[in-house]
Amino acid sequence: MTAKAAWTQQARRALFDDAAAIVHAEYARDLTPDEVARRIATSRRQLQRVFAEVGGTSFSEYLTRVRLDRAADLLRESTAAVPEIARALSASAARAASRSPSAGGTECRRAPSAAGARAG
After folding, report:
1. Residue 16 or 99, more confident
2. Out of 3.40.190.10, 2.60.40.1670, 1.10.10.60, 2.40.30.200, which CATH number does the structure's domain 3-98 have?
3. How far is CA 91 from its chain centroid?
4. CA atoms of 111 and 114, how far apart (whole Å)
5. Least packed by Cβ within 10 Å: which of 43, 47, 69, 118?
6. Residues 6+ apart with CB under 8 A from 19
7. Could you tell me the end-to-end alpha-carbon distance of the chain, in angstroms, rounded to an integer?
8. What is the pTM of this model?
9. How would you label 46-75 residue by residue, b for 16+ Cβ within 10 Å and e otherwise?
């Protein structure tokens, strides 16, 4: 690998790390690739390239994964209903949860575990 290629790889890794830090810190906001790119002083196209090459995914898929991971944590640790958890994750997730069939309550939040079903 040439020195220039190594430098490019390091620069892209740094951009990815900076963008990922913003996503992890602010996943509850309606983040856009344009906003994150502006904040890390790059273009939207370069941000997309960085996520594809370094992260192996797109910006929106990465943001969604961070939100889903956080939702899974909240579902395990909380008794809150799905719409409440969705509101905690983002306005767009809250809108999606409000259209969900289970939005009315917590009865559809979790399927009982096989062990719990046998024990009960």
Report:
1. 16
2. 1.10.10.60
3. 13
4. 9
5. 118
6. 36, 37, 40, 47, 50, 51, 59
7. 61
8. 0.71
9. ebbebbeebbeeebeebbbebbeebbeebe
